[in-house]
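Worked example 3 (structure in, sequence out).
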C-alpha cells in the first residue's frame, strides 16, 4: 500500500482504556502496514505493559507511547513516572505539554522545557504540544502564544539538536480539543506555516522541514483527509476518534 511517508497518526487516549480495554482494543484493531507512515498511541501509564505485549503479539504496526514523563529520573515526586521507569518496560515515545497537562496540572512553558530536555537526554522521542486558547485567538494573539510556547525549546541546545530527529510538534488549538469544533484547513495550514517559519529562523530550513508538525483538535475520519491535503500538516494527534478500533482504522485508511 502506498502512503505518505511523512504522515504520523498518533492517538491520545487521555484517561481512557485501562489494561483490559487496552487489550480488547488491540485485539480488535486491524491495521495493515504502510510504507513509511507511522501509527502511534499514547496510552495511560497503567496500560503501557498490556499495550506493548498486545502490539508485539499481534505484530501490529503501532508504536506505544506514554502521555507524561517527569523531568527528574527518580526521587520524592509522589504519583509521577520517570524516564528510567518507562525505558525499563520498553517505552521510547512520550507526549509532552498537552493542553490538559497545562490546564489541569499547572504545567508551564518552563516545566515543559525541563521535561522535553530530560526526555531527549534519556533517548526518548518527544511529541511536544502547543496551541492557543480561544480567547487568545480571538484577541489576535495566536502567533504570540505559539512563539512563547516554543521560544525556550528553541533556545535550548539539547532540544535544538533533536528537532526533526527525536523532537516533533503537535499544533493543537485548545478550542478545538474535544469540542467537535475542528480548525478549518486554512486556520491549521496558517498556524503550521507560522510554526515552521519559527523553526526555520532558529534551526535553519532543513531542520524545519524535517520536523513533523501534527494537527490536533476534533480530528475525525470525516475531516482528516482535507487537513492532510494541506501543505505542512504532517499527520494528526487524535483524542476521541482514536478510542475505537474502527475509527482509528478509518483514519489510517485516509493516509
Ligand atoms: C487530543 O487529545 O489531543 C485531542 C486533540 O483530542 P480530540 O481529538 O478529542 O479533540
Amino acid at each position: 500500500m502506498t502512503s505518505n511517508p511523512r504522515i504520523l497518526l498518533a492517538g491520545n487516549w487521555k484517561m481512557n482504556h485501562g489494561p483490559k480495554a487496552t487489550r480488547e482494543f488491540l485485539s480488535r484493531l486491524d491495521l495493515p502496514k504502510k510504507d513509511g507512515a507511522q501509527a502511534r498511541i499514547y496510552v495511560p501509564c497503567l496500560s503501557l505493559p498490556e499495550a506493548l505485549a498486545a502490539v508485539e503479539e499481534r505484530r501490529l504496526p503501532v508504536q506505544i507511547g506514554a502521555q507524561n514523563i517527569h523531568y527528574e529520573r527518580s526521587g520524592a515526586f509522589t504519583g509521577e513516572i520517570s524516564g528510567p521507569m518507562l525505558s525499563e518496560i520498553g517505552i521510547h515515545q512520550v507526549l509532552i505539554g498537552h493542553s490538559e497537562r497545562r490546564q489541569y496540572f499547572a504545567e508551564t512553558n518552563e516545566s515543559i522545557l525541563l521535561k522535553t530536555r530530560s526526555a531527549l537526554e534519556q533517548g526518548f522521542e518527544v511529541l511536544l504540544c502547543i496551541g492557543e486558547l480561544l480567547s487568545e485567538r480571538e484577541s489576535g494573539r495566536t502567533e504570540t502564544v505559539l512563539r512563547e510556547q516554543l521560544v525556550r525549546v528553541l533556545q535550548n541546545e539539547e532540544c535544538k539538536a533533536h528537532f526533526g530527529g527525536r523532537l516533533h510538534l503537535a499544533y493543537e488549538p485548545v478550542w478545538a480539543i474535544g469540542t467537535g469544533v475542528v480548525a478549518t484547513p486554512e486556520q491549521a495550514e496558517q498556524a503550521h506555516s507560522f510554526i515552521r517559519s519559527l523553526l526555520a529562523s532558529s534551526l535553519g530550513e532543513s531542520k524545519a522541514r524535517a520536523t513533523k508538525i501534527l494537527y490536533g483538535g476534533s480530528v475525525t475520519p470525516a475531516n482528516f483527509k482535507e487537513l492532510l491535503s494541506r501543505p505542512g500538516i504532517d499527520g494528526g494527534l487524535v483524542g476521541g476518534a482514536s478510542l475505537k478500533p474502527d475509527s482509528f482504522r478509518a483514519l489510517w485508511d485516509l493516509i
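Notes: The chain has one domain: 8-253. The chain has a mean pLDDT of 96.
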